[in-house]
């Protein structure tokens, strides 16, 4: 049996491509995002009382990878990318229904020109992600600190230390409109966004990732990441 | 933008009708349920490694109420049923996309005759519920014990004390196939499943609810509930 679901809202976030998005929403805390409700769901009534909750569940669609379909097994990066586990034992995007789930901090609600915007703390969502449900986080029902977390019992460790090349420092200084930019880039790149097969080996490649309206270039020599340049797009 | 999602599996639970279903999955702990994966998703591969996790997130469809559409505001039972809040500030079934979300204990995985069944602890799901996604519960990302829980900061209190009329006792004794039945019925009815407008007033009505293959009859004189009869259907 099939069901049709509609887009209720769309995410506006600094992540302009899938590469370098943290694997869970709480891992990069310095980026904020906005959820714009779309007509006919952009009614102040529909979010009345939501401000009483500190966190929300967002159900969303993996819109950029859904065309690729699903696989019964996937290789989670947490297992080094060379062990296969069942797709339902992971939060991989390559699932039968392209539904994602994230808990995000709710910082506020903005009503403007008939529009409704939810101001969100750190998200792990691509810019433009279609949101299909919003629910309050209920700590008495949803918080299970003693649940057994399988192959992902803790946040990823072995973070890289991030430094900025003088040219990147100069670019940072020019972006006074984004005061948390240094922290944000440091948190994103500390997680080592490279594919698992690249890790633990010499790597001279310069990578680039689109964040906000920038192309951020970097090189990784573990345990260090150097941001070599920040270019405007 | 609209998306089509497919049913991956179906719930087999004691709850044969919406009335008396607990409002969150952990509130009635004695009932177990099963999730049957449907072709082509009933592959042992697709759940490989899932047994390492103690809890799952199930995304499901509110199939019995979806025809009724959505309302921008609803009256949550937690507020006595006479205060309106936005639908997105609740887990009400009357939402734009009829998607539900429950965290449930995973007790085991059964592979039989090419079928895959997930053995679940307490659920709050109607028998026959279509499941559209299964994800592992990740305590490091999902457990936020200090989140602010709005108008539902704690589990519902003011539970009723439940007693069994001798006729109901006799029926219980005949159901040796369901050894946890007494506890299950006590937990379900202790929550006072009546509509909010009935509460706090004299109420002589006899109610009936279908649980398993039974019609369970009861009367409520707060703070007591008497199970008057348990009839086979």
Description of the structure:
The structure is a homodimer of 233-residue chains. The first copy, chain A, has 233 residues and is mainly beta. Chain A has 2 domains: 9-62 and 98-142, YaeB-like (Elongation Factor Tu (Ef-tu), domain 3); 161-232, YaeB-like fold (2-Layer Sandwich), CATH 3.30.2310. Helix content of chain A is 10%, strand content 33%. The first copy, chain A, is built from 3 helices and 13 strands. Chain A has helices at residues 139-142, 166-174, 181-190, and strands spanning 2-6, 9-12, 33-37, 55-61, 73-74, 85-86, 99-112, 115-120, 130-136, 161-164, 207-211, 214-221, 224-232. In chain A, the strands form 3 sheets. In chain A, strands 2-3-8-7-4-9 form a 6-stranded antiparallel barrel. Chain A has a 4-stranded mixed beta sheet with strand order 10-13-12-11. In chain A, a hairpin with a 2-residue loop joins strand 7 and strand 8 (115-120). The N and C termini of chain A lie far apart (45 Å). Chains A and B meet through strand 1, strand 4, strand 6, strand 7 and strand 9 of A and strand 1, strand 4, strand 6, strand 7 and strand 9 of B. Strand 1 of chain A pairs antiparallel with strand 1 (2-6) of chain B, so a sheet runs across the interface. Chains A, B: Residues 5-146 form the TsaA-like domain. Chains A, B: This is tRNA (N6-threonylcarbamoyladenosine(37)-N6)-methyltransferase TrmO. Chains A, B: InterPro entries: TrmO-like_N (IPR023370), TrmO_C (IPR041369), UPF0066_cons_site (IPR023368), YaeB-like (IPR040372), YaeB-like_sf (IPR036413), YaeB_N_sf (IPR036414).
């Amino acid at each position: 049996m099939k069901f049709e679901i509609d887009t209720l809202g769309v995410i506006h976030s600094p992540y302009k491509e899938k590469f370098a998005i943290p694997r869970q929403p709480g891992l990069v805390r310095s980026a904020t995002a906005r959820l714009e409700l779309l007509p006919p769901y952009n009614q102040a009534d529909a979010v009345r009382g939501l401000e009483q909750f500190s966190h929300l569940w967002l159900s969303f669609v993996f819109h950029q990878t859904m065309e690729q379909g699903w696989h019964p097994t996937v290789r989670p990066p947490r297992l080094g990318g060379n062990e296969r586990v069942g797709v339902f034992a992971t939060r991989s995007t390559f699932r039968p229904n392209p539904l994602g789930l994230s808990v995000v901090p709710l910082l506020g609600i903005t009503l403007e020109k008939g529009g409704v915007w939810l101001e969100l703390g750190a998200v792990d969502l691509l810019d433009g992600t279609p949101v299909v449900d919003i629910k309050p986080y209920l700590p008495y029902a949803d918080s299970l600190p003693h649940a057994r977390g399988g192959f992902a019992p803790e946040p990823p460790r072995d973070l890289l230390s991030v430094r900025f090349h003088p040219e990147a420092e100069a670019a940072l200084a020019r972006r006074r409109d984004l005061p948390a930019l240094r922290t944000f880039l440091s948190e994103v790149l500390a997680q080592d966004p490279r594919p698992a097969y690249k890790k633990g080996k010499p790597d001279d490649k310069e990578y680039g990732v689109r964040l906000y309206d920038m192309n951020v270039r970097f090189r990784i020599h573990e345990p260090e990441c150097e941001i070599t340049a920040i270019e405007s797009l």
